[in-house]
Amino acid sequence: MPGFFKRILYPISLGMFLGFAGWQSTVYGAPATTLEEDEQISIITKLTGALLSNNHYRQQKLDDNQSSKVFDEYFKLLDPAKLYFTAPDIAGFEKYRYYLDDLTRAGNADFAFEVYDLLLKRMTEYQEFAEQELTNGFDFTLDETIEIDRQNAKPFANAEEQREFWRKKLKNDVLYFRLLKRAMESETPEDAAEADRKAIQALWDKQTPEEKILKRLRDIHNEMSQKDKMEILGFYLTAMALTYGPHSSYFSPREEEDFSIDMSLSLYGIGATLTSDDGYTKVVEIVPGGPAALEGTLKAEDRIIAVSQQDEAPVDVIDMSVSKVVKLIRGPENTKVTLTVLSGSKGRNAIPENITITRGKVELKESEASGSIRAIPMPDGQEHKIGVINLNRFYMDFEAAFRGDKNYKSCTRDVKRILEDFKKEGVDGVIVDMRLNGGGSLQEAISLSGLFITSGPVVQVRNSERKVKVERDPDDAIVYDGPLMVLTSKLTSSAAEIFTGAIKDYQRGIVVGDSRTYGKGTVLDVTQLDRLLGHLRQSFPAGSLKYETAIYYRINGESTQQLGIKPDIQLPSFTEFMEVGELYNENHLPWDSIAAVPHDNYDSRLAKEVKILDEKSRERRQNDSNFQKYQAKVDLFKSLKERKVISLNEETRFKEYQQEKELDKENDALNGTAAGEQDNKKKQDDWVMEESVRIMSDFIDLKAGEDAA
């Protein structure tokens, strides 16, 4: 463990500093002095550029090509929805495009501040434009449309084109609130508790849509205009880091301080991972065991457009920074927060919905591995017992392990206990459900793999020097040796992909799920720049840098990076059509392969078995009316996700909302999910698990037939 911390804190050699052009003569060896802010900025800029070019896994020098990428990335980071900067604006800075590498080595960050000044100017213009347009009002009977997904859009050609989009965007923002009000007024006590509905509606009526939008624009402008030079530098250095990898970033001293304060206060959240998406705050993942997971309504891909505290008017959060939205969502334990969201399952045309969640902390007990047994009846009157293990993260109590506690908490120990209970109950097969597993401890991924295999290699790790280390399971014992399935989705990530890859490479079991897993195969290090300043005889808050330093590879030599793990059998699912995965992250490290390492093969017949199981599953799904209804909902979700343009006609939008709501009710009725049947609803909604259990039952039969032969 001490070696681990040393690697985190000192991943760079002193020789790198001494070899940095012009560094030794101007900084190193000088007596410690109190530096002005601009001098500190110069050192941080030089240091960050040197760290990234020398220590990042890419081993990409900061040259003219990289400079051009930094140029584009900075505009993208400051203006992700391409709302403020026009093509002529960007062209005005072209003199910097191939010069930022030289400026970084010289410690010059003038480009960052000049671009930021223009951003503030454009934000002021947008606010003034909004005040005028919102006063004039909008005609919602016109058949206008707006391009809501501007991720791949080009910058506006001129100011006229920009202002036309500004007008449509403001119109759409107002329309969201008008549609929400109509939706709330159309609800009945059957849809929501009457008292709660009226209370929420009363909060929304405290301000007009126009007042909410203007307040939001003023708040955003005030927040951005109050950033100090170190924070602005942080944006620029993060843009530089992102050109090396999507998980790289710089944290300014203020961000580090805010994080420490947040961690020390009695503040609680809802248990959701959030990101920025075209001006919206999007839910990436619901943390198992957290308040949002227990409430059950908020889902991945939902976009948050407003946040309201208990008994307070909602705050419009469109175009607001994720960090600011997080601060609004967090608060004292057991207090309520209401999120107004655009449902991800309804696509870009969604009507806002209100979700009220009681704040709390993520209870580890709720996110621990859990097991259950499903009994599947057979034609001969017998039944197959199938053990299902839900594992949503690879957890381990590092502190307890570090201090020598022999009973430290770990997912491997919990799963081992569950498997032993399964054996006592006489289960015929085991499914490990990792559809929501976002990773965690590498050590736990290795030890968990060891429960299903004897000793052997589990994963390979190649560092920035291209040296490969093979991580092995040292334990000869095997806890469970029967039929095994790993259930995955596009949300299955990192350590969960290592485990899945090992099971697949050993041919120890079958993998069922989406077309691929997430594809997160990188190792991250965090360097605290303050600790490196001692080499320069300086001491001041300098922030920290996070960046990719190594890549995981399966024992068959293939990386888990970018492409993830392909299943043996693919099933239709909602997550299949979500825009999640390393493939969607710009500047991600590419997939590649290295030499395989020798390993055992547990089932030479598995390829033939998978083909039979896949054919049986397809035939069963074709003849299952309930599964066809599930497939129809998946297809609808896919079509809604593909919409890039939405109507600005109020009646058109509300009619589509009513049609989709009615379709949802019909589907629920057809699936037997009327009031009072919530347990059955939960079961019917998870058709992927239902079909996986049937596949496992077929797998058990195949194995029994082969053994008998």
Tags for this model:
6-stranded antiparallel sheet, 2-enoyl-CoA Hydratase, Chain A, domain 1, single chain, 709 residues
Describe the protein's topology.
Elements: H1 2-9, H2 14-18, H3 23-26, H4 37-55, H5 64-78, H6 87-91, H7 100-105, H8 110-136, E1 145-147, H9 159-186, H10 194-204, H11 209-225, H12 229-242, E2 249-251, H13 253-264, E3 272-277, E4 280-286, H14 291-295, E5 303-309, E6 315-316, H15 322-329, E7 336-342, E8 353-358, H16 364-367, E9 370-377, E10 383-390, H17 398-402, H18 411-425, E11 429-433, H19 442-449, E12 456-463, E13 468-473, E14 484-488, H20 495-505, E15 510-513, E16 522-528, H21 529-532, E17 544-553, E18 569-570, H22 606-622, H23 625-641, E19 645-647, H24 650-670, H25 678-685, H26 687-708
Helix pairs in contact: 4-12, 5-12, 8-9, 8-11, 18-19, 19-20, 22-26
Overall residue-averaged pLDDT value? 84
What's the CATH superfamily of the domain at 368-521 and 559-619 and 683-708, by name? 2-enoyl-CoA Hydratase, Chain A, domain 1
CATH architecture title of the domain at 368-521 and 559-619 and 683-708: Alpha-Beta Complex
Q: CATH first level of the domain at 368-521 and 559-619 and 683-708: which class? A: Alpha Beta
Determine the strand fraction and express it as a percent band.
Answer: 15-25%
Structural class: alpha+beta
Q: What is the CATH topology descriptor of the domain at 368-521 and 559-619 and 683-708?
A: 2-enoyl-CoA Hydratase, Chain A, domain 1
* Residue runs with pLDDT of under 50 for 5 or more positions: 1-31, 259-267, 670-684
User: How far from one another are the termini?
Assistant: 51 Å
Largest sheet: 6 strands, antiparallel
The count of DSSP E runs of length 2 or more, i.e. the number of strands, is 19
Any idea what the shape is?
Answer: globular
Radius of gyration, rounded? 27 Å
Helix percent reads: 40-55%
Number of helices: 26
